[in-house]
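Narrative summary of target 7.
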Amino acid sequence: MSGRRRILLVEDDASNALALTALLEDVGWRVQHARSCAEARAALGGDAPDIVLLDMGLPDGDGRALIPEIRAAHPRARLIQLSGDERRSDGVDGAFVKGASSRALLDLVEAQRVVSRLR
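Modeled conformation, tokenized:
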């Protein structure tokens, strides 16, 4: 199990988190879910994720504030913004607009996984 690819999913919406977790686990990812900035910070002390999927609107703060913390804790992790609009925040490697196709998310995650292996 430790050889599975790992994603840290930072998403406060329970239905979105459940759907994303199921989608990603179906293709072999191990998903750790954090519902807030505080939970995400706690998760950063654990095993390094390959990819972080980061919601920008969290109940206890702006997800953008986590970007430098994620980079400092896990510099090799790829960071994908989850948002309701197409504006991409500074410091992220990719962006996914919520509501876009599942295939688009899987393609983005796979592309970031490939890039991380080249680094």
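The domain at 5-118 is CATH 3.40.50.2300 (Rossmann fold).
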